[in-house]
Amino acid sequence: MEATISKYRFNIRMWLVQLPIDKRTLLLDKVIKQSGQSKDTIRRIIYMKAACTSYVRPETKDAFCKVFGKSITELENITIITL
Known about the structure:
This protein is mainly alpha-helical and 83 residues long. 53% of the residues lie in helices and 0% in strands.
């Protein structure tokens, strides 16, 4: 049996790796501008581990969703185990 579990709390990293580098930079700049968060904070959120319970502002989640054209439920990583 093989199990697949994502190690990140949000699906942002998965979305970013599917884009060319120049497009990633533009999208992240938009998120930084819309959310009012620093570049370091945005990077911390992207690489947040699944077990992390740190608070993420709702406006930051909204900024990610708006920029990537996704919903909040798509943003939150619900651990799916495939066997």
